[in-house]
TrEMBL record, chain A:
Belongs to the amidase family. GatA subfamily. The active site is at 79 (charge relay system), 154 (charge relay system), 178 (acyl-ester intermediate). PROSITE patterns: AMIDASES. It comes from Acrocarpospora corrugata. This is Glutamyl-tRNA(Gln) amidotransferase subunit A. Residues 24-470 form the Amidase domain. GO terms for cellular component: glutamyl-tRNA(Gln) amidotransferase complex. Coiled coil: none annotated. It comes from the Bacteria. HAMAP family: GatA. Gene3D superfamilies: Amidase signature (AS) domain (3.90.1300.10).
UniProtKB/TrEMBL annotation, chain B:
Its EC number is 6.3.5.-. GO terms for biological process: glutaminyl-tRNAGln biosynthesis via transamidation; regulation of translational fidelity; translation. It comes from Acrocarpospora corrugata. Keywords: ATP-binding, Ligase, Nucleotide-binding, Protein biosynthesis, Transferase. InterPro entries: Asp/Glu-ADT_sf_sub_c, GatC. This is Aspartyl/glutamyl-tRNA(Asn/Gln) amidotransferase subunit C. GO terms for molecular function: asparaginyl-tRNA synthase (glutamine-hydrolyzing) activity; ATP binding; glutaminyl-tRNA synthase (glutamine-hydrolyzing) activity; transferase activity. SUPFAM superfamilies: Glu-tRNAGln amidotransferase C subunit. NCBIfam families: gatC. It comes from the Bacteria. PANTHER family: GLUTAMYL-TRNA(GLN) AMIDOTRANSFERASE SUBUNIT C, MITOCHONDRIAL. Heterotrimer of A, B and C subunits. Allows the formation of correctly charged Asn-tRNA(Asn) or Gln-tRNA(Gln) through the transamidation of misacylated Asp-tRNA(Asn) or Glu-tRNA(Gln) in organisms which lack either or both of asparaginyl-tRNA or glutaminyl-tRNA synthetases. The reaction takes place in the presence of glutamine and ATP through an activated phospho-Asp-tRNA(Asn) or phospho-Glu-tRNA(Gln). It catalyses: L-aspartyl-tRNA(Asn) + L-glutamine + ATP + H2O = L-asparaginyl-tRNA(Asn) + L-glutamate + ADP + phosphate + 2 H(+); L-glutamyl-tRNA(Gln) + L-glutamine + ATP + H2O = L-glutaminyl-tRNA(Gln) + L-glutamate + ADP + phosphate + H(+). The lineage of its organism: Bacteria, Bacillati, Actinomycetota, Actinomycetes, Streptosporangiales.
Length: 496, 99
């Protein structure tokens, strides 16, 4: 088996034992990137010389006897919303084109400290706002399963890079589903940790009370290893949780649901769900029962209000966060000809530098926060947030984890929902509640829909700081399905 | 009746510091009207007795010791600036001609 098809855990082992080198592994992935990027467009920036220099440095550190952890020397694709001092950081926006941040995000620092080799920066919906990467100012990423379809979003470059074997691992951020939805529609694993479990320092802010960095991988154990590598308390992020990282790697190795109580969310199904998605989900439910779990139906009535609440809360926070793009201190400046005021330059720059979805959300948030509308919109949405947290709390008294389809449909064609915001927003229907309540949730592959042969994701939701349960159940499902399928789902994907 | 008019969108664009073209205003007015109409549903369940949540975690007043620590140099802080003068950000005029 070639190096690009190996798991991150295997690569780490082979590098540690000297059977291969980080340089050799990096070169194999750079070759793959060169071969498939014209089709996939997962990356916004790749600097092959810089990658090989990083890999050489890791090989030297290992040769000198430094202990770096299980992923030392393994390559990773990094979402272009984390700052990197040695690479441009754009957030998929023209307003930051060519920007070189003066510092590394905490997640970036921790990847480097663990000896991971950053292959490049991956494409995303502008400022992580979207479900398809079509909102990137630099063109869409394509789904490796079907190049006419979206790879999900906002972390669509991250999901596509891993599904296309350009990287064994990638980072993402999840504000309303931006890790789990792309993972589901590309047939890989994506995890949203508990809010505050991974640092937001140096993550370009979209909605600060929701944004959560998390891992992508082709299997559950690799995702857990990456989760462990970059998570944990960060004094630079005042909303970071000062508690140990849940035992995610141990849980991924445990891979058992025997005796667990699992709740099926009653509200997620029926109208608007693709039949093939529901059929695969039902198979997963049956599978979990056959593995010894006790499966019951659980009602979370407020979840049906999660989507409207999210599309008030996230735009409100975004309208405030994106005020920093003022054409004064960094990024684009347009129209500064000596005659215009700072305010005029600001308005011209923001009009030229932001794409339509970002403008929509900034104005929507400005509306929801404006005096006279605040109580009816933002205030009500915050109350719904309380109700959703209460529904989760009640549910987790009855069951250990909740499950649902990750997305209502498989990957849709590029262009289909591009100018229909409400249709696009539905992609995050099942993922949003966990962002509003801050709890952990993962998506793992659960087969392909009969109608279109495209991957379907199973979402597993666990309580706040119960991240290990996501990995435990996810790994059990993965093992049982792979026994049935004769290997990972991704091996059924067409060759690129 | 529409929830949000074209004039309101023009006002929002001004508040948001977005110099939008006329055709953009028309396009966004229709879309924002549809979105606002859909998200207004939150009011159905938001009764007076429910406390609002601004955040998922019950964190308040997270402090760090008030100690001098290394930070960016002026050169680093100015490295991405559109215009620089005398180690400072150079900005367009912020006061009116008459001021």
């Amino acid at each position: 088996m070639s190096l690009i098809h190996k798991t991150a855990a295997e690569l780490g082992r082979l590098i540690a034992t000297g059977e291969t080198s980080s340089v050799e592994v990096a070169q194999a992935h750079l070759d793959r990137i060169a071969a498939v990027e014209p089709k996939v467009h997962a990356f916004l920036h790749v600097d092959p010389d810089g990658v090989l220099a990083q890999a050489r440095a890791v090989d030297e550190r290992l040769a000198a006897g430094e202990r770096l952890g299980p992923l030392a020397g393994v390559p990773i694709a990094h979402k272009d919303v984390f700052t990197t001092a040695d690479m441009p950081t754009t957030a998929g926006s023209k307003i930051l084109e060519g920007w070189r941040p003066p510092y590394d995000a905490t997640v970036t620092q921790r990847l480097r400290a663990a000896g991971l080799v950053i292959l490049g920066k991956t494409n995303l919906d502008e400022f992580a706002m979207g479900s398809s990467t079509e909102n990137s100012a630099y063109g869409p990423t394509r789904n490796p399963w079907d190049l006419t379809r979206i790879p999900g979003g906002s972390s669509g470059g991250a999901s596509a890079s891993v599904a296309a074997y350009e990287a064994p691992l990638s980072t993402g951020t999840d504000t309303g589903g931006s890790i789990r939805q792309p993972a589901a529609v590309t047939g890989i694993v994506g995890m949203k940790p508990t809010y505050g479990g991974s640092s937001r320092y140096g993550l370009i802010a979209f909605a600060s009370s929701l944004d959560t960095p998390g891992p992508f991988a082709r299997n559950v154990l690799d995702a857990a290893l990456l989760h462990e590598a970059f998570s944990g308390h960060d004094p630079m992020d005042s909303t970071s949780i000062d508690a140990p990282v849940p035992p995610v790697v141990e849980a991924a190795r445990q891979a058992s649901v025997d005796g667990l109580r699992i709740g099926v969310v009653k509200e997620f199904g029926g109208d608007g769900y693709q039949p093939g998605v529901l059929a695969r989900f039902q198979e997963a439910v049956d599978l979990l029962e056959s593995l010894g779990a006790k499966v019951v139906e659980v009602s979370c009535p407020s979840f049906t209000y999660a989507l409207p609440a999210y599309y008030l809360i996230a735009p409100s926070e975004c309208s405030s966060n994106l005020a920093r793009f003022d054409a004064m201190r960094y990024g684009l400046r347009v129209g500064d000809d000596g005659t215009r005021s700072a305010e005029e330059v600001m308005a011209l720059t923001r009009a030229a530098g932001f794409g339509p979805e970002v403008k929509r959300r900034i104005m929507l948030g400005t509306y929801a926060l404006s005096s006279g509308y605040y109580d009816a919109y933002y205030g009500s949405a915050q109350k719904v947030r309380t109700l959703i947290a209460r529904d989760f709390e009640a549910a987790f008294h009855q069951v250990d984890v909740l499950i649902s389809p990750t997305t209502p449909t498989t990957a849709f064609p590029i262009g289909e929902r591009a100018d229909d915001p409400m249709a696009m927003y539905l992609a995050d229907l099942c993922t949003i509640p966990s962002n509003l309540a801050g709890n952990a949730a993962i998506s793992v592959p659960c087969g392909r829909a009969d109608e279109d042969g495209l991957p379907v994701g199973l979402q597993i939701m666990a309580p706040v700081l119960g991240d290990d349960r996501c990995y435990r159940v996810g790994a059990a499902v993965e093992k049982a399905f792979e026994d049935r399928w004769g290997g990972p789902l991704l091996k059924e994907a067409p060759a690129l | 009746m529409s929830a949000i008019t074209r004039d309101e969108v023009a006002h929002l664009a001004r508040l948001s510091r977005l110099a939008l073209a006329d055709e953009e205003l028309d396009h966004f007015a229709a879309q924002l009207d549809q979105i606002v109409g859909a998200v207004a549903r939150v009011a159905e369940v938001a009764s007076a007795d429910i406390p609002p949540s601004s955040h998922a975690l019950p964190l308040t007043n997270v402090f760090r010791p008030d100690e001098v620590r290394p930070s960016l140099t002026p050169q680093q802080a100015l490295s991405g600036a559109p215009a620089v003068q005398d180690d400072r950000f150079r900005v367009p005029r912020i006061l009116g001609e008459e001021a």
